[in-house]
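Predict the holo structure. Ligand: NDP.
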Amino acid sequence: MFALPMVCYALVFACNEDGCASLADAYSRGVRAFPGFPKSMSLFDASGGAIALGWLAFTALAHVVLPGIEARGVVLGDGTRLTYKLNGFRVFAATCVVGAIGSYFGIIDLTLVHEKFLSMLTTMIAFAFALSTYLYASSFGRGKTLARGGNSGNVAYDYFIGRELNPRLMRGAFDLKVFCELTPGLIGWLLLDVGFAAKEYARSGAVSPAMALVCAFQGAYVIDALWNEPAILTTMDVTTDGFGFMLAFGDLVWVPFTYSLQCRYILEHPQALSRAHLALVLLVQCVGYTIFRGANNQKNLFRTNPKDPSVTHLKTLQTKRGTKLIVSGWWGVCRHINYLGDWIMAWAWCLPCGFAHVVPYFYVVYFGILLIHRDARDGEACAEKYGADWARYCAIVKYRLIPFIY
Ligand code: NDP
């Protein structure tokens, strides 16, 4: 809980418009190789704080006011099934409308996100701690459903991992976890990207191809997640994990402030990429997206509509639990081929930063570690869910993430 905010600050401390530490420099000169926090950014100021909190208030209000679909979640351990109001895509559309009108009339200045970056980061870190404290304290109320892994009795561990499974406000109408998972952080990430692109445009009169590509790739990823919003209800985050510091910080701080690093880097270190380089980036993105979307769609369709002609040819393994596991198609290649596609896309998001510095490749490294860990966690959960059938499945689909390698 101390280290994660420090990593967010370190990414600015090590790489900003005053310079960017190379690996060799960092190795030979240690922390002196880093440029330090730039003078143009303050660690905290009232306006940066107001922008960050204003953004949270706007998304919360939009979530409450705008209509949404009512979707049912999975059956929980205690046999109950919750209903969720989902309107993340509408909140996104409202953000676009308000942003466009506000920018046109000069009320909103998106380029400010660069100057206020550190100040907004500090505010959101403080908010994540405040929210986690509230979540931990309120989880001791009566009638709360606790997450299986979040009730160890160790205060620090439970505070971090999340005690209560589905904390809600407004008599159950406002699901805090699903709201934080989809709305302020994800759309906020895109706003940071667009703000950096706007600043590049204000500085140079153009948006560079490198910036445009990263914004387009990440924009498509966020819009895809918001468009397929109901899919969140079957993810581990929603069905299994409690809501504590890990997800609150991850959703509200980590995702927007570290995933936007590449756009910030391109703004601060302009990249003139060759056509061959741009073509390579596009190719990597297409390969990653084809695997990621193909695999996720195949499993979602198979789970929700197994009679669909595009999945009836798949070979399956019948389990004692009642459900079937796919053993051919994308899911016959390896057990988490969707993670591999996601990771290949991560490369396409970093390659536009060129090869001068290693810092903008942070996302590829971090995300690789996250996916290996997530695969292990899901493997454990499936071994528990499916018992001997999971061992049979693993014997058929031998590789975890990368065919013939891992
Ligand atoms: P998955 O979509 O891979 O879902 C795992 C579940 O799918 C298993 O628990 C099992 O549940 C079911 N399953 C596993 N194997 C099979 C099979 N062969 N046939 C049928 N069902 C199977 O996991 P996630 O929810 O972790 O990931 C969803 C997406 O989100 C991924 O593409 C991932 O890359 C992405 N993601 C992105 C993150 C980011 O920060 N950008 C972070 C985390 C995830 P059951 O059998 O009970 O249905």
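The CA atoms of residues 280 and 348 lie 8 Å apart. The radius of gyration is 22 Å.
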